[in-house]
Every structure is written in structure tokens, then in C-alpha cells.
Amino acid sequence: MNRNSAHRIPLIATCLVLACLLLMSGCATDLTSTVAPGTDLEAVKTAFVERLPADDRGVEKLIAEELARMGIQAASGDAMPADQDYDILVTYRDKWMWDITMYMIELRVQILKPDTRFVMASGYTFRTSLARKSPEEMVTEVMGEIFNEK
Amino acid sequence: MKSKRQLQVSVAVLALLGLLLNGCAIGNQYTFRDENIGLPMAPAEKGMALSTGVSEQRPYILDGDKDPDFIGLQRGGFGNPFDVTTASGNAFVEDVQRVFNNMLQYGGYDVAFTTRLESLEDFIAANRDQGTTRGLFLEVRDWKTDVGMRVTLHYDLVLTVVDENGQVLATSSQQGLEAAGGASLGEEGNGETASRMLSTKLSYLFLDPEVQAALK
Fold it and tell me: Residue A56 CA to chain centroid, in angstroms?
């Protein structure tokens, strides 16, 4: 190894560290859920998905469709109708980022007791640009994680 | 000459990277939100009058190792820890007290008297002349988040419910070491996670059937 190549090692190491950091931040994912002790989500038959006021992409409809696919009778809208009973109230919060196109970077879903808004369960999915999925897939992923549907 | 310059550039880039990574970790503060935190049981119909007491029992606070506004650690780029504190600037138990009281009021109860005292005995004595139906004493024995690549929560909360004579009616606890998902790049996201975990753990204290029975 000559003197020039020895001095290139720090430069190569720097490039490697930077490349690793870029890759790590570019394809980071996370998927978690929490269910309150004693909660039986298998008993859920009906659900109402409350639209996030700032959401104009229709994520509430995607969640309702996913619940229906799971066999739960689901409706969605701005607020739960006072004259109807539902087993659960579903709220969510989505975050979007731009990287060539807009994509959903994270989706957090909460399953609430309709009368008290107690958080019975919650789920979270996070995907950066290189690991991005469609909003439909993000919804399927997080709802499956909450309801333990593998 | 060229190689020496390359070496200097590399060292400068690595130092800058280190600064940037640590820069996100220094001086983080979290806000604990208190709005609309639901209890697992139906609201008390007539607004039962409650006294509440919150006690700081975290050993690292009591022995002076950390300040009362300490709420956890944020790891720098090399895993080095930096203290995270409350955004309010208050002692953590003050924030807990606010969240706890608002949760009870949102649940339909009337928090008529609230205090911060060290022991259950002191709380019972202070509560004796308040004319409330129940007293709720919350001990914060442990609470800290450790944020690196993931958020980890260390927690130990104990709730004791007493009647107007100081008789213990129920005790409930939540304790553990729990991973709470990936860390965000920034204190806002991690603060939201910490805030959500505090409200969740506080609400779980009320899942105990004896606690629920004592508050009906």
C-alpha cells in the first residue's frame, strides 16, 4: 500500500458512512401496535371511522373498506351519528412527504371506545421514500397489525 | 499535499456529521398534551367530587442525580445520551398532575382538590377535610423515555383509591420496559410518542375492576 492509498482510506470511510446513512434514512420502516389489556377486538362487529378534518385524500374511506374486508360492518364520515351505536370508533392521523411524488410516510390509527373515547388499541406504520407503499397498503398493514391479522 | 487536503476534508465532514447528529439530540423538550384522554369506564353521571395527589418517587430525582423536569434521554449519533426535559419547564409530576386531572374531568368527574405530596399517608391527611367522595393518589416511581433508533419507555405508576375516611379501596399499577416504535428525526415526533404513552398508561390504571367499582 503506497502513501496515497493510505490517505484515501478516511475519504472512502467518510463516503461509506454517508452512503449508509442515506440508505438507512431512505428505506426505514416501522410497524407497531398496542392493545389495552383485556380488550377483545375479535368481538368487534361494527365500526365508525371518523374523518380527520385536515384529510382530503379519503383515508377514512380506505380504513372503512379495510374493516369491511375484515368482516366488520364499517361506516365513515365527519362525526359519528349520535343516534347509532358502534362497537368501536376509529380515528387516524396520516402524514405525507414529497419525494418526486407525494407519498404517505406514516399512518397512526386509534381504536376508541365510542362512549368514552378510551384508547382500546392503536397502530402505527412508517415508511420512508424508498420503502414506500400505497395508502391502501399502508392501511392494510396497520389494521392487520392492530387486529393481529397475519 | 493533495492527500493531506483529502484527509482534512474527511475529518471535517465526519466532524460536521457528528455535530449534526448530536445537534438533533441536545436540549430536546417534550410537551405532554392533556386533551380528550378517555377513561375505560363510562363517565360518572353526577360528577363525583375527587381529590387527587401526585407523588414524585423516581429514585434518580429523589437522590438528586437528575432535575425534576427530567423525562428521559435522547441518544446522539454515537449513542451518547442527552437529557430530555419538559417543554413546560415544570417538574414532570406537575405535567402528570395536569394530564391526570384533565383526564378525570374529561371522564365526567369533578377534581375538587389536587396536591403533590410524597406519601399516601400525607395525602390521606390532606384530603380529610376536603369533602370529596374519593381520593386518587398517583405515585410516579419511574418514567423515562430512551430515544435512539427506537423509543423505549421505562415506567412504573401506582394508583391508590381511598374513600373519604382514608380507607384504601383499590390499588392499580402499570409498570414495564416497552418499545414504542421507531424514533422520529426530531423532538416533535418523539414528544408526541411520549405524550401518547403517558396518557395511555394513565388510562390503563383505570382498567382495574376494583378501581372502576370505587369510582362508581
Answer: 17
Looking at the predicted structure, is the pLDDT value of residue A25 above 60? Answer: no
Searching chain A, which residue's CA lies closest to the CA of residue B10? Answer: A11
Burial class (CB in 10 A: 0-12, 13-18, 19+), B26: exposed
Under 8 Å CB pairs connecting chains A and B tally to 71
Helix (H) or strand (E) holding B104: helix B92-106
Which pLDDT tens digit goes with each residue over B167-197?
999 999 999 998 876 666 567 788 888 999 9
Extended beta strands in B63-192, E state: 70-75, 81-86, 110-115, 134-147, 150-163, 168-182
Flag whether pLDDT at A3 surpasses 60: no
C-alpha cell at A59: 383515508
At residue A150, the pLDDT reads: 46
| Alpha carbon distance A69, B40 (integer Å) | 28
What is the pTM for the complete model shown? 0.84
Instruction: Give the gap in angstroms from C-alpha B134 to the nearest C-alpha of chain A.
Output: 21
Partners of A98 in beta bridges: A102
